[in-house]
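Example 470, ligand guanosine-5'-diphosphate.
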Amino acid sequence: PSLEYELLRRRIGTNILEYWNYMSSEAEKLQKLLSNEVESHQSQKILTDFVQLSREHKRSLLNDFDQMTKNDGYENYRHTEAKALSDLVQKRLYYLQNPTDCATAKKLVCKINKGCGWGCQLHHMVYCFIMAYATERTLILKSKGWRYHKGGFEEIFQPVSKTCLDERGASMGAWPANENVQVLTVPIIDSLNPRPSFLPLAIPADLAPRLTKLHGDPIAWWIGQFVKFLLKPQPETQEMLDNGRKKLGFKKPIVGVHIRRTDKVGTEASFHSLDEYMRSVDEYYNQLEMVQYVEKRRVFLASDDPKVIDEARKNYPHYDVIGDPEIAKIAAVSTRYTDSSLNGIMLDIDLLSKSDFLVCTFSSQVCRVAYEIMQTVYPDAYNRFKSLDDIYYYGGQNSHNVISVLDHKPSTHDQIQVKTGDLIGIAGNHWNGFSKGKNLRTNQNGLFPSFKVNDKVEVANFPKYSHVDE
Ligand code: GDP
């Protein structure tokens, strides 16, 4: 397919949803207004019918869209290209990680024990790995005494190198250090200074033409490739994951739901009720059942709040609710970042990433990791999620901009004016048809219709590794 075709196809898919977000949210406002009026039965009936049929209309459009994608003759390309691109990157990482002489190899040392959860630590490792890739250095993970497993990363996952795990070298320096220094250390991403252009959300220039055609969320794919290389379970870990999956009865179709509660709520994220998550799950199955017989609606529920699993079983009896309250119980207590909780979080992320669709809050690194891994499971899973809060981001990322493709004249005081071609720094999507951001031309902050922009994929120059590709 041409790049234009693929971009347009995905844009249509995204904007069917944006159109629906807008219509349903406006209709809800009207419904509220009407419910206060006495003589409004007739208007209420019209509005209720309107919403109901529009919802069906949306499902039908999305199903047709999926059918079109399956039947446009390019599915084979998508699968082949996804594999080829992944193989290419994995080969480069393997090369980088296996220098012939570890004593003289250039290295980047990364302490994994950042004071935060597993998703956050994994993202710290990925950031180190991107720095290593960009500076052509072998990544050395330092993980002895790791809070999730005292014995270290290598007892749970395969070592990230077969030839070079020794952090020592003739000279050592902290970023940005002289490029000749043998061993480079880096701080956490938030403190990195100066900040190179190759940090997320940037993808490598040499891969950009192929990747932007293949994938609807190239940065999530790119991050996913580093996660894929890092997380190769040791046999025992693999066995734990396989047994866990079997024990839970994980099978398709299935929607993965991640509900992050405890310490996150009120500090870094707002509370969302189980019903809010389940509305999206219901919608997934309502759409699916239009084209396919579903014997049993199944949902995999992961949480650090054990109550929600019982709540789901009680309130959604027509669902097969898969989940382990014991895992959630361990996750909930303050000793969360310890040996006993690692298996649980690994299994939960594994199953979330293997689900057909993901419902969660992207404010949680757990869910963002699951989404990133999902990109290595499917050729392009850019639209297999519903986040109840944030859009996808990478903690500590460089700026995220969108480009407007249509003019916009504000119709309320909280909207901003936009001209085609304007760059807007995006802060978030309100999932009601509008996104929020700052127009970089006018410096105005405010709302704009989400369908009037396209994502701006950031591209940076990385080393090309062309000698590895043959
Ligand atoms: P964030 O705080 O949600 O952004 O994600 P982090 O991964 O950085 O820290 C949260 C930690 O809480 C996880 O790493 C787990 O240890 C625990 N946790 C949160 N949600 C779950 C869950 O659904 N299942 C399990 N097993 N643990 C969880």
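Summary: The mean pLDDT is 96.
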